[in-house]
């Protein structure tokens, strides 16, 4: 009887260890994807987690430190979206290749900045050595829905050639802001 009880406990421990490992992997994936989602998409899982956590805690209070951290992150995300005007609508990531020191992921990203829509597709090559991790963007493809009044083809082709997403988002924010001002001005005179 004693061995069977021990076996049941060992099986339960192994099951819990596997569940912890899966949750840790899911958490890591979510952390990597967190920067790609809009404010609304980001708040949905947070609120779901809060409801789930409150259900598990059976009436116990939500930890104040975690709650404060969530509120801070929500505020920061909202500020960045208002400051840049960039809102992401969708993001997908697919791991193409994964080895011990190298990971290649294909990303698809869409959204808008003020009234300009954009779609990005690129591969992210991450290489890790003993001291650090380096990431390189390859095969960048940008599709922008621009009106007749806006010619962004030179800007897009230059960005695709250099593969610099930071420059793209900085210039997109500025370009979209001035495009919106111009559109409003022309509407005023019509």
UniProtKB/TrEMBL annotation:
<dbReference type="GO" id="GO:0000775">
    <property type="term" value="C:chromosome, centromeric region"/>
</dbReference>
<protein>
    <submittedName>
        <fullName>Centromere protein P</fullName>
    </submittedName>
</protein>
<feature type="coiled-coil region">
    <location>
        <begin position="6"/>
        <end position="33"/>
    </location>
</feature>
<dbReference type="InterPro" id="IPR027801">
    <property type="entry name" value="CENP-P"/>
</dbReference>
<dbReference type="Pfam" id="PF13096">
    <property type="entry name" value="CENP-P"/>
</dbReference>
<dbReference type="GO" id="GO:0005634">
    <property type="term" value="C:nucleus"/>
</dbReference>
<keyword id="KW-0175">Coiled coil</keyword>
<dbReference type="GO" id="GO:0034080">
    <property type="term" value="P:CENP-A containing chromatin assembly"/>
</dbReference>
């Amino acid at each position: 009887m004693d061995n069977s009880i021990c076996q049941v406990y060992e099986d339960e421990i192994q099951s819990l260890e596997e569940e912890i490992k899966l949750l840790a992997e899911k958490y890591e994936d979510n952390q990597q994807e967190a920067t790609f989602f809009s404010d609304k998409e980001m708040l949905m899982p947070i609120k779901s987690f809060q409801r789930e956590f409150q259900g598990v805690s059976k009436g116990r209070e939500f930890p104040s430190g975690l709650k404060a951290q969530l509120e801070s992150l929500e505020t920061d995300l909202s500020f960045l979206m208002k400051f840049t005007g960039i809102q992401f609508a969708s993001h997908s990531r697919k791991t193409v290749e994964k080895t011990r020191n190298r990971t290649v992921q294909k990303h698809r990203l869409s959204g808008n900045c003020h009234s300009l829509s954009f779609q990005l597709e690129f591969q992210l090559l991450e290489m890790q050595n003993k001291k650090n991790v380096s990431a390189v963007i390859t095969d960048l493809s940008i599709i922008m829905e621009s009106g007749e009044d806006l010619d962004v083809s030179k800007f897009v082709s230059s960005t695709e050639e250099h593969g610099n997403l930071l420059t793209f988002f900085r210039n997109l924010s500025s370009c979209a802001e001035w495009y919106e001002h111009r559109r409003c001005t022309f509407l005023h005179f019509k």
